[in-house]
Give the backbone structure.
Amino acid sequence: MRTVTLEGRGDFEEWRLAARALLAAGVEPGAVDWRIRDGEGGLFAETSPELPADPQGPLTVPRAFVDLAGSVICHSDPRRFGLLYRLLWRLQENRTLISNAGDADVAVTRLMEKSVRRDSHKMKAFLRFKEAEPATDGRRRFVAWFEPDHFIVARTAPFFQRRFTDMDWLILTPKGTAAWDGKALTVTDTAAKRPDLDDQTDDLWRTYFRNIFNPARLKVKAMQSEMPKKYWKNLPEAELIPELIASAEARMQGMIRAELKPAPVRHERRRLSPAEERAMAEGVFGALSREASGCTRCPLHAHATQTVFGEGPADARLLILGEQPGDTEDLAGRPFVGPAGKVLDAALEKAGLDRRQAYLTNAVKHFKYEPRGKRRIHQRPNSGEIAHCRWWLEREVEAIRPKVILAMGATAVEALTGRADVFSALKGRQVPLGDEAVLVVTVHPSYLLRLPDPEARAREQAGFEAMVALAGRLSAGERDALSPTGGAGQSAEPWQDR
Amino acid sequence: MKKSLRERLAILSDAAKYDASCASSGTSKRHSGQSGGLGSTEGSGICHAYAPDGRCISLLKILMTNFCIYDCAYCINRSSSNVERARFSVEEIVWLTTEFYRRNYIEGLFLSSGIIRNSDYTMEEMVRVARTLREEHRFRGYIHLKTIPEASPELIEQAGLYADRLSINIELPTDTGLTQLAPEKQPDRIRRSMGELRLKMQEMAEPTLVKKRVRTFVPAGQSTQMIVGADGASDATILSSSARLYSSYELKRVYYSAFSPIPEASRVLPLVKPPLVREHRLYQADWLYRFYGFDIGEITSGLKDGMLDLDLDPKLAWALANRDRFPVDVNRADKAMLLRVPGFGTKTVKAIVQSRKAGGIRLEHLVRLGVSLRKVKPFVTTLDWSPVRLLDRSDLRAMFAPQPEQLSLF
């Protein structure tokens, strides 16, 4: 049996050197007696002299073990040295040992690691600085007293350095000290004595603690599991706890039973919300779009962010009609500003058309979707929703009286015709709509984005662009422009005679 | 006579306690070594104290003022309430924040406010607090600002450049509920604010030709709060509202706040002990949606009156209602199914997937991973355990439900 005596105050280096030497000498874990020097005790020379002081042989361990051991060495359990040495020993045979949390040695070590981490976390949380006399150079000085379970002062001190750069501070504990003077961080493992300090600001903090507590929600166990009583003696606010608990029930009953007094005069004088409704759209649509913004004709309104009304000049000759706003449109409150809008913009630009000259809108004015985690999945509006929303579309068409309506996708066509089954017959064609307008039918730009086959996509894209261009020419007054499909569909409202 | 700072702190922290959020986590890492000033944030938040209500105290949570021109029934600060009123100056809030911070009481500031004069004036004062902290005091701690409904987009943008988190409360799970209890608040306005903020965050995160470097903008994202139990909404309604909020606005958190009696309470509200267990179950269901791959529909289908079981956590309730999906073979099942086992958390599942590579899992391994065998045994098979008969027992629910409590005798 070999005896190794260590200081055991959180210094990883002393253990590392000893363990390295033992391993190099092939000493089995069961043959080492790890001891902690107590007070006067012997000298470091107690480490068996026959061990090489610093073996040069290659000794590599996984990074995960170094991190784990560095943390566990700070634990106050005297078994930690032997346990770590056994892990080190077993690692030589099994390099992935550390990742097996089901192994008994690993499990115990992980528990110790967790305990050290928790202790360090509680030090960050529950340590309280009290202000002391300023330093000679005028910097403010603060002193804290804390009682950790483990030897964590050196591990945790850099946190306080990063946090409190512009003040001098000193942390005293029975397991070591740390100090910062604006230039250097000094840590020791010397035991300190509890200082006698008083800070006026603690009073304000207690005022805060007392008032942020809600007596109607008393949950003492929840408090104590996170803030165990052992910490209370060093927390200025903790002295209030017994009284707050004792009076909670009465305070809550008081609130429930209290007589309601008449409202103060101030309440009667108050103005209503001063931020008046701002018209979202320009020109003649102000009133209409304001009205639509409060639309509750169908249930979609409660799920979407807002009504996305049409946008464009009141005298537009071309009205472009889509299906419904998408994710981006719903957030921005404007039509065609998402990915499908980019496809449309590109087609408009290619055709030499100015988006600002056209009136853009959707058959359904609210976004319909299913929530899926952090995303929203687009859902097609049903016939009922399309029918409810047609009321708004009719108002828009009435007010603008466009020469051409470019209907993109089946929903747009259904909204205009009232029929769900005519889109494929009309796709790629122009047909008269009433006496004044022409309807041009094409696919919805988002359909192009979803086509996986590049060939089909190129074909549909060309058709889409051709119909956008056609709608542009027609709206510019080229009444005789031919549709790409050879001018078919000139009969009046062909869907009515099917 | 003007009230002292201490008196006003009492009033304005009392007025702020009904906001559940106190999180200081999930923001960018930074520290005062970089600024020469004060403060740091290192990813995970720190709770510096716990009040006897079990709630973490991480931030100095106060109102700038509790004067308010709105009259929301559930709010202690509504204009018709006789609660004492007070106001802090910008400088006082800055002083309190930095002095509290220096003593390590807090991680930072959560500033909200009643609405005085108008939305923009109020928001501007709040932005001034954040700017003073950041620029004059080189403060690198956490700042959470409550967005004032209808404040101008320019102010929201400035607020986002100084604050770690912005939030605006949806308050009630349905539009009808909000219109009834908070006549001046408009649900669509609140949603629009959240939508605008999400777009702004996206915009700021994208480098453009003009600005190659992206600017840090609300690094801890946005959150909101719903009051539970003030109106008649069921848990199913509440949870589907949350799912919509998470999917629409990339919210980091939806907080549920059990409605609790307030001083000077309005008589349109149920003045009873707050439904704390219900609040807890809602949080659990919310977690299942966000971290465990459950759909809200799965959690809420088959609920009686759309209400979660108060006796069982929603994951266990789901498992008992879907026994055909069990037992799950711990050694073979994929991650998604392991996550559905009552008693396995995300960390446990990760550890199981890791350590089963080293060999077959037995019950003793689960114990070492910190798993409660009592809870998982009916739902799993391991090398040395198979629960077939246990899973078929008709009294399985009773094995988990709490013992009936004896009524208090007085």
